[in-house]
Amino acid sequence: MGEEASFSNKNVAASTTIGSSVIPIINRLQDIFSPVDGELSKISLPQVAVVGSQSSGKSSVLEALVGRDFLPRGCDICTRRPLALMLVNRPRNPGDDGREWAEFRHLPGKRFFDFTKVRQEIMAETNKEAGSNRGVSEKQIGLKISSPNVLNMTLVDLPGITKVPVGDQPTDIEARIRKMIMAYIRQENCIILAVSPANSDLATSDALQMAREADPTGSRTIGVITKLDIMDRGTNACNFLLGKVVPLRLGYVGVVNRSQEDINKNRSMQDALAYEKNFFRDHPVYNGLSDRCGIPQLAKKLNQILEQHIRMVLPGLKSELHSRLNAVAKELQKYGDVMESKAEKETMLLNILTKYCEAFSAMVDGRSQEISTKELSGGARIRYIFQSIFVKTLEEVDPCQDLTDEDIRTAIQNATGPRNALFVPEVPFEVLVRRQIARLLDPCLQCLRFVYDELIKMSHACAVTELQRFPVLRRHLDDVMGKFIRDSVRPAERMIDSLIEIEMDYINSSNPNFVGGKKAVEVAMQQLKSSQVTDGTDGEKGTLSEIGQRFRLTSQLFLSFSLNFLGILELSGNSSSRTWVFPIIFGGKVQAGESPASRSPHETLHNVEQLPSTIQLTEPPSILGPLEMTEQEAVEILVTKLLLQSYYDVVRKNVQDLVPKSIMHFLVNFNMIFIFKIHFFKSMLYVGMNSSLALIQRFIFPLLMC
């Protein structure tokens, strides 16, 4: 045993100079970056990732490299959390007793000299994060081992690739473990140690397949073939060790593991190394491959490759660290000097409020020094909302879009009651136009909401460097500004509601821009005449032509009747006996002085008795619709549409003008007044008032909350 120990020490001593200059630098960087979250934790440092299927012998290889039993062992899944193992070669000094010790990242300063307790701590930390029933976690465990018998290197023991979930493992355990492994081995700074057992088909090794996926060229993959001593008799792994089956640039190393029986019998690592040496020395095939076999050769190869890899990536790593350092230094410089006195804190607070107000005002007014050339920002976005979204949307709305001819015809007939309409009734026009005006309320409120969102975005985007130093103050300032803007929305909503209600409450048919009834009838006549041009000469088009002729005749009569109503309407006799004279329109005339009421009841009854039989009327249905459309009704519908379109345009122009003005007055400009008040109180504090923090809290922040 002593001879084997000296054998190991000689190998280590012969290689202590290898990587002694650069690997410790990476180890120190690992110590620095490990407890840090954020950008620094994303820097990829050179390391060796150990990949293999479950029970492939990964843990045995790591323990052989360390020379200690410290990893959880068993026939089931053992590695359930990534273990970052940092091996630090500690040269022997006169005052050093040479004892090996371990230290966990989560227990800084606590050294473990008993490696049995190291195993227990690994199991306890694994159960804490992944549970005690074979669960798996991505959270890493950090372990440093300092020994004069190891070479400098950093390895990450990853969970073994498993196929069938057991215990608390999810059904997609294989996919999760593969994803975890790929997150490590895809990094260009990572050396892949692909472990494959010799007693399985090496050509289909999971470790080699994943290594090939992450490293197609094989330039950073080392193959390790374990359990060479238990291969079938008459077979060997010579072709794999020589790279003839699955070529790898960094080659292969074959090792002999301790069996589970050796572990149960507490067979020492020194005895295992001696057995491995004798096996390769006495084997007729492997004795000629001494540079590719054995744990000492694997340790030396890993150390050399890692050292070469570090030297290769060190310039780029150094450049990246300097870049991150400069970025952090600039960020730190933005935070300014440390403030000690109360007066300095108060002055800083006032300066922050001043710069915030100036930045917000400049962003709204377009006076910002950081004007973008790529997109609209600040007040320009508000103008875009008014002109390109709100105004254009209202112009594209057709007030008659949701009204069919039957709807208008039904409304007209309901407005006339039991009598026939002499003119186009005003009631259906007013009812329909109010309904269309009410539709304008939603787009107006949406426009208000868009402007509110833009003001909130501007308040969050105010680039005040000093606010980055005080995130709590930034949150409070955003909350206060947001509350003030929300409070400004309410009066703007009330104003917009009032504008729409005003338009609905009084239909001003005397508006000079309104087409009016006479003009609407003339336009309707012109449209009917123009429609006749498209009539054809065939049978179907001839029928349409006849309908057009009737429309023209009826329209002319309707226009003549409308323009000369007072002349056509004649009253005969005194006020108690009036005669309606409409011979052309209604097809007949009642003689003056004659009425059905003047006939005697006996005469009427006599006429009824002469009827041959009683005529029964069909009861009207519960829901009635208009009868077949007449020519006069067609003209009335067309006139009503023209009136609706004309008055809607009048209201639309009013809304397009007044709604943006209301939003600017109650929302945008009101917030600018709020900013001015902050400036006013700030100047008062600078001029002569007691600038204490209590005074700021008394005047400024209540103002912010108003």
TrEMBL record:
* The protein's name in its UniProt record: Dynamin-related protein 3A
What is the source species?
Citrus sinensis (Sweet orange)
Origin: domain of life: Eukaryota
The major lineage groups are:
Eukaryota, Viridiplantae, Streptophyta, Embryophyta, Tracheophyta
